[in-house]
Amino acid sequence: MAHHIDLNADLGEHPDKDLDEKIMPFISSCNIACGGHIGNEASVRKTVLLAKKFGVAIGAHPSYPDKENFGRKIIQIQPQELAETLIEQVNLVRRICDEEGLELHHVKPHGALYNHAASEDFISKLIFNVMMEAAPTAYWMGLATSDSEKVAKENDFPFISEGFADRKYEANGSLRSRSKEGAVLNQKEVLNQVDELVLNSRVMADDWINLNIQSICLHGDTDGAVTLAKEINQHLVKRGIQIKAV
């Protein structure tokens, strides 16, 4: 049983300008949208400063350059072009961290890029090269037991294995597509899944899947995200689990 866990949230990507500040007190790390699917220098800086205020570890959240689909579809793009835009996105967050006297703690790909890397060795290797170029001292955060974790371990690169509080899993350990019914869990289901992930290192799909994780993600754009963040935090603390970054 884990005695501590990182609780992370994807931030800087919601029209409610106060949402990030409301979630920050309950998490230990954040993933900041940096222009691929949404976000710009002003929004990144605002979120970085909020993370500084609340002592939350800062991550870059780069995406396929596809604002139209919010980075949730795989797009046709040349590998070199994709690498260049990802480096640019990560560098934006890193530069602002440097200017504010902070460290870039991790990089977590967003949406379709995250899921593509989890199941495709070539994309994971591309992201590894991006990490080496733009954030060689940061952690790479990705789906537990995925191709991303495999590529990171093969290259001795520090990796944070992530599980999801609010998403249904498929039998192969991937996340159920948001286009399918039941992909996003309700509050009761979220707390049950958190218990299983943190206390028992497993998650229910068609059957139980063993899953060793270091971080749990709550999506900032999930309905009731602030309430869920508070509930998850308090739920874990009551069970003697400390919330802290890796």
Would you mind describing this structure in some detail?
By secondary structure, the protein is of the alpha/beta class. The protein has helices spanning 19-23, 41-54, 79-99, 111-119, 121-134, 147-154, 187-200, 225-238, and strands at 4-11, 29-33, 57-61, 104-107, 139-143, 159-164, 202-204, 208-210, 215-219, 242-243. Strands 1-2-3-4-5-6-9 form a seven-stranded parallel barrel, surrounded by six helices. A two-stranded antiparallel ribbon has the order 7-8. Helix 3 links the parallel strand 3 and strand 4. Helix 2 packs across helix 3, helix 4 (111-119) crosses helix 5 and helix 7 (187-200) runs parallel beside helix 8. The two termini are 16 Å apart.
Map the helices and strands:
Layout: E1 4-11, H1 19-23, E2 29-33, H2 41-54, E3 57-61, H3 79-99, E4 104-107, H4 111-119, H5 121-134, E5 139-143, H6 147-154, E6 159-164, H7 187-200, E7 202-204, E8 208-210, E9 215-219, H8 225-238, E10 242-243
Parallel strand pairs: 1-2, 1-9, 1-10, 2-3, 3-4, 4-5, 5-6, 6-9
Antiparallel strand pairs: 7-8
In short:
With 246 residues, the chain is an alpha/beta fold.
Q: What key phrases describe this protein's structure?
A:
alpha/beta, 10 strands, 19% strand, globular, seven-stranded parallel β-barrel, two-stranded antiparallel sheet, TIM Barrel
Count of helical segments? 8
Number of strands: 10
- Runs with pLDDT <50, length 5+? none
Identify the CATH homologous superfamily.
Glycoside hydrolase/deacetylase
Name of the top-level CATH class = Alpha Beta
The fraction of residues assigned to DSSP E strands is 15-25%
- State the assembly state of the protein chains: single chain
User: If classified by CATH, what would the architecture be?
Assistant: Alpha-Beta Barrel
- In the CATH hierarchy, the third-tier topology is known as TIM Barrel
Shape: globular
What is the helix/strand order? EHEHEHEHHEHEHEEEHE
Report Rg: 16 Å
**End-to-end distance:** 16 Å
